[in-house]
Amino acid sequence: MTSSRVGEADLLRRVAESQALVRIKRSPRNADRIDGIVVGVGSKWALIADTGDAGFFEGWVAIRVKDVVKVKKDSSFRERFAQTQPEWPPTAPANLDLDTTAGLLNGMSAISSLLAIEQERRFHSQMAWIGVVDEVTRRWLWLHEVRPNATWRKRPLGYKLRRITKVFIANRYLTALAAIAGTEPTP
Question: What's the whole-model pTM score?
Answer without folding.
Answer: 0.92
